[in-house]
């Protein structure tokens, strides 16, 4: 990635009567026909309350000593917080940072700040996810979701190291520590890199201010999530540290298992830019690129879909990130039929376990250098 350039890769023109224009028009017609808003509904607000309760109620029990010295209860509370943390990530702050809770920007901004409460930083998340990942999905050097500093090879276009041969075994450990790394060091490194690439300009932030904000947010987070339990839980310090790690291992693994099978699959295209007129360009339009690099899974699993914030329907999410996820189930048949009409793939794994298995197979092939971009 070169400094001062966010658009160093151009996508082909979508053309007249394109797949994207057609599917957008049909989705719009669906909302108009049923006279409903594409933003959050009552179901979404109930879910938000549930996810917040799943995180904060166990926390209140922790600092009020409800565990009563019982280690099993104590660790169960931390485990529930891990579930709540992942649920907040997929089903609350994710929609808010995409601006899909409300047409009111202030409402979205207010809800998005829950990310800071659980240890993250909204500015970085929006740049990495909304701008880079959603624009350049699976493009090495631009999509930071597949950039693991060489620890895990997530694209056939990345260099192969000798240790990648075992990544299908050890990748799950790095998935577990994902949020822990994010909540400690990643935000600091990331914001410095974004400053170098002039990605903080649109956020109207200086590097100094961003560093101060991150420091204050992290201090607040670690004070309430670690210091208060150390003081008030009545449990030994090493129990508190172990519980804190359990929470992050739970959240990190769950979040990774939701996001990784959505893109790191054998069916993903992993197309690379070509040079034309001294510019790096993609041969496909953006919407076609997205559908060729995304996979849905467990479409009939209502419980998983509820907990995962509809992100098991990543195809619909990538095409309609401006629509609240509670509507994806109804939009899916529209997208699927339109994709087939235009001769495009609609990649889907029937169950969650099959998706995880397929992802593990892809990790193994990537690690051994045998994975190839989809034809």
List keywords for this structure.
two-stranded parallel sheet; Fatty_acid_desaturase; 375 residues; globular; mainly alpha; membrane; 3-stranded mixed sheet
Task: Please provide a written account of the structure.
58% of the residues lie in helices and 3% in strands. The protein has 375 residues and is mainly α. It has one domain (9-367). A three-stranded mixed β-sheet has the order 1-3-2, with no helix packed on it. Strands 4-5 form a two-stranded parallel ribbon. β2 and β3 (279-281) form a beta hairpin. α3 runs parallel beside α11. The two termini are 26 Å apart. The relative contact order is 0.16. The mean pLDDT is 94.
Structure summary:
Helices cover 58% and strands 3% of the residues. The protein contains 16 helices and 5 strands. The strands form 2 sheets. Strands 1-3-2 form a 3-stranded mixed β-sheet, with no helix packed on it. A two-stranded parallel sheet has the order 4-5.
